[in-house]
Amino acid sequence: AENTLAPNGVCAFEVTDKQAGEHFQKWIKGRLFTPKAAKISARPDAFKGVYLPYWTFDTKTSSRYSARYGRHRTVKDGKTHTETDWYSTSGFYQEFIDDHLISATTRYDQNMMRKIEPFNLLNNKAYKPEYVSGFLSERYSIGLQDGWNHAKRDIHDHLQAQITSKIRWENSADVVSNLRFSTNHDDITYKYLMLPIWLSSFRYKEKIYRFMVNGQTGRVGGDAPISPLRVTIAVILSLLVIAVIWYFFMSE
User: Fold this and answer.
1) In Å, what is the CA distance from 146 to each residue of 38, 48, 104, 138, 142?
2) CA–CA distance, 64 with 163 (Å, rounded to integer)
3) What SS3 string covers the chain?
4) d(CA 250, CA 143)
């Protein structure tokens, strides 16, 4: 079993429970597909302040890559159409990844937790138990190695997007395909941080909807009721816009 590590740092609450309630009201009023009745009636239950565990990772990445890229050209031979010329490329990409954040708890909805990021991690101070007194605090349930494996997957996706952008920019390419790359990680460091989150929920039509508020920034993430009618209207409007664009394009 992995020995339990002590937290390296803690970021204090900068948003009060009253302010968290105000941020929630703004958030729910701004939700396009939430019924008006829910926006008017939604009142958060009592807020519960918790310090949740996170890993952050720094790493110096070095990636060797190969790919194909294409440039489109317009061909007119009776009917105008587009053809793509393909070329091969390879190269080297380096980037320092600073404070990549990974949740270290399995108790809460990971999508919801991502919605309230980012945190201002520069505001962390060395951990002392008295900093978290008066709040619930949770020990990590995702260990350091599992956290690093998760971070590597995230970083791989990030590097894929960065290398694709680099190839497009350097070669004035319209499209990139068959990208393959391998990455070395050097100077890997980690921190185990306790970060502040307000938890609450509200009830609408006998259903409970949970949400979180970032205890530093006030950013809200969570579930809210959806109005099928509002979604349908939005879909119809989108289709109308597409139809109008297509009509003008075809009539030119």
Assistant:
1) 39, 28, 9, 17, 6
2) 10
3) CCCCCCCCEECCCCCCHHHHHHHHHHHHHCCCCCCHHHHHHCCCCCCEEEEEEEEEEEEEEEEEEEEEEEEEEEEEECEEEEEEEEEEEEEEEEEEEEEEEEECCCCCCHHHHHHCCCCCHHHCEECCHHHHCCCEECCCCCCHHHHHHHHHHHHHHHHHHHHHHHHHHHHCCCEEEEEEEEEEEEEEEEEEEEEEEEEEEEEECCEEEEEEEECCCCCEEECCCCCHHHHHHHHHHHHHHHHHHHHHHHHC
4) 57
Distance of alpha carbon 203 from alpha carbon 196, whole angstroms: 24
CA dist 43 to 14, 24, 115, Å? 22, 9, 20
Give the Cα separation of 72 and 79 in Å (integer): 16
Find the distance separating the first CA and the last CA of the chain, reported in whole Å: 69
Count of beta carbons in the 10 Å neighbourhood of residue 72: 11
Tell me the mean pLDDT in the region 203-207. Answer: 84
pTM of this structure: 0.82
What was the pLDDT predicted at 3?
66
Between CA 57 and CA 244 the distance in angstroms is 48
> Among residues of the chain, what percentage have pLDDT more than 90?
64
The pLDDT tens digits of the residues spanning 72-109 come to 998 887 788 889 999 999 999 999 999 999 999 999 98
CA separation for the pair 45, 47 (Å, rounded) = 6
9 contacts 144 by C-beta, under 8 angstroms = no
Q: What is the CA radius of gyration of the chain?
A: 24
